[in-house]
Automatic annotation (TrEMBL):
It comes from the Eukaryota. Residues 99-110 have a biased composition (Low complexity). This is Thylakoid lumenal protein TL20.3, chloroplastic isoform X2. The keyword Signal applies. Keywords: Signal. Residues 73-94 have a biased composition (Polar residues).
Length: 129
């Protein structure tokens, strides 16, 4: 029986806002990939190449995130975000916010309303006066 290993080359791919639950991405090459707000719960990224990958607001299991942080490096050339920063490596405050039920709270929320409850129609953000 011949067993072959398929190594995925996903260099620079944009997986923003995708559901990749229970994916097996062992040894996948995710160099410079964008995985912003991607759901990767119960996924296996064993020995994946993640140099320059952006995992901002992605949902990963804590054990998977810790494993990736051991060798995460680089900065994504498109988003300008550090791979270690996007995973929250070494930042206990950032890790305190994230959970699978609230992926967008992986960092402290921006102030969305001013004191009067109004915001800028163009940006959706508001400044307190």
């Amino acid at each position: 029986m011949l067993i072959t290993t398929l190594i995925l080359f996903l260099i620079g791919a944009d997986f923003s806002d995708t559901l990749m639950d229970r994916m097996v991405l062992n040894e996948a090459n995710l160099t410079n990939a964008i995985l912003v707000r991607t759901v990767l719960t119960r996924s296996d990224l064993g020995r994946a190449v993640i140099e320059g990958a952006d995992f901002s607001d992605a949902v990963l299991d804590l054990t998977q995130k810790q494993a990736l942080c051991k060798y995460a490096s680089g900065t994504n050339p498109t988003t300008g975000v550090s791979t270690r920063s996007s995973l929250g490596c070494g930042n206990s405050r950032r890790n305190a916010y994230g959970s699978p039920s609230s992926p967008l709270l992986s960092a402290p929320p921006q102030k969305l309303l001013d004191r009067d409850g109004f915001c800028d129609d163009g940006t959706g953000l508001c400044d307190a006066k």
